[in-house]
Design goal:
The chain is mostly helical. It folds into two domains: 2-138; 180-242, Zinc/RING finger domain, C3HC4 (zinc finger) (Herpes Virus-1), CATH 3.30.40. It has helices at residues 2-15, 18-59, 62-75, 83-138, 171-180, 233-242, and strands at residues 200-202, 212-214. The longest helix is centred in the middle third of the chain and has 56 residues, at 83-138. The radius of gyration is 35 Å and the shape is elongated. The protein starts with a helix and ends with a helix.
Length: 243
C-alpha cells in the first residue's frame, strides 16, 4: 500500500502544473488566432477596395488609360503598385508568420503532454512489477504477460504457446489483488460484504441498502449484462409486495 500511495502522490505532484501550463499555451494560441482573424478581415477589405479601384480604372475612357500606360512606360517603372496592394502583401506575410507560430505552440503542447505520458508509462511499469511481487507473496499465479519480479510486457497480452488466449482471472484472484492494495477504510458491498473488485452492477432502487453487487454474486457475466434497469432480488420482492 505504501508503494501505491507513493506512486499516486508522485503522479499528482507531477501533473500539478499541467492545467496551468496548458492554459498558458492555449491562451497564446487564442491570441494568435484573434490576430490572424483581424489581419484576414483587413486583407478582405483591402482586396475588395483594390477590386473596386481596378473596376473604376477599367471604366475610364480608353484614351486616358493609354496615356497612363504610356507615361509609366516612358519612366520604365511599369504599372505603379498601390498602397493597398503593399498593405495586403504585408498582412498576408504577417498571417503566415503567425500561423507558423501557432504550429510551433501546438508542437510545444504535444511535447509537453508526451513527456508526462512517457513518465506515467514508466511509473505504471514499476507499479505493475510491484503488483507481480505482491501476487507472488500471496501465492497467486503471475498476471498474464508478466513474470514474478519482472516488468510487464508492453502492448498486447501474451498468449499461451498453443495460441489460445490467456485464461481470465477468477473472481477470487480479482478480489485478492484488490484486497492487497486496499486500506482499512475501504467500504464493502454486495451480499458477500467484500470490497469493490471486478465488474459490479448497481441496483436501480435509490433506497437499496446494499446498492452495489459483484457480477459473480448475482449470477451475471459480461455476456448476459442487463441492457435496461436492474434490481436486486430483495428490491424486486419488495416492489411486488407494494403492488
Amino acid at each position: 500500500m505504501t508503494n501505491t500511495t507513493t506512486y499516486l502522490r508522485q503522479f499528482i505532484e507531477g501533473v500539478a502544473d499541467v492545467p496551468k501550463e496548458l492554459e498558458r499555451h492555449f491562451k497564446g494560441i487564442r491570441e494568435l488566432d484573434q490576430r490572424c482573424n483581424e489581419l484576414q478581415q483587413r486583407v478582405d477589405i483591402d482586396c475588395l477596395a483594390e477590386l473596386q479601384e481596378a473596376a473604376h480604372r477599367q471604366a475610364e475612357p480608353a484614351s486616358k488609360r493609354a496615356k497612363t500606360s504610356a507615361a509609366a512606360a516612358s519612366t520604365g517603372e511599369g504599372e505603379p503598385t498601390s498602397e493597398i496592394s503593399k498593405r495586403v502583401q504585408h498582412n498576408i506575410e504577417e498571417i503566415i508568420r503567425l500561423s507558423e507560430e501557432k504550429l510551433s505552440r501546438a508542437q510545444q503542447i504535444y511535447d509537453f503532454i508526451d513527456g508526462h505520458i512517457r513518465k506515467l508509462d514508466k511509473d505504471l511499469q514499476a507499479f505493475d512489477a510491484d503488483i507481480a511481487k505482491e501476487r507472488q507473496r500471496l501465492g497467486l499465479p503471475p498476471a498474464p504477460g508478466t513474470t514474478p519480479g519482472s516488468e510487464p510486457t508492453e502492448g498486447k497480452r501474451r498468449q499461451r504457446k498453443d495460441g489460445a488466449p490467456p485464461a481470465p482471472l477468477t473472481d477470487e484472484e480479482l478480489y485478492q489483488i484488490a484486497l492487497a492494495h486496499a486500506d482499512e477504510t475501504e467500504p464493502t458491498y454486495c451480499y458477500c460484504k467484500r470490497i469493490s473488485y471486478g465488474e459490479m452492477i448497481a441496483c436501480e432502487n435509490s433506497e437499496c441498502p446494499i446498492e452495489w453487487f459483484h457480477f459473480g454474486c448475482v449470477g451475471l457475466t459480461p455476456e448476459n449484462r442487463p441492457k435496461g434497469k436492474w434490481y436486486c432480488k430483495e428490491c424486486k420482492r419488495n416492489m411486488v409486495k407494494v403492488v
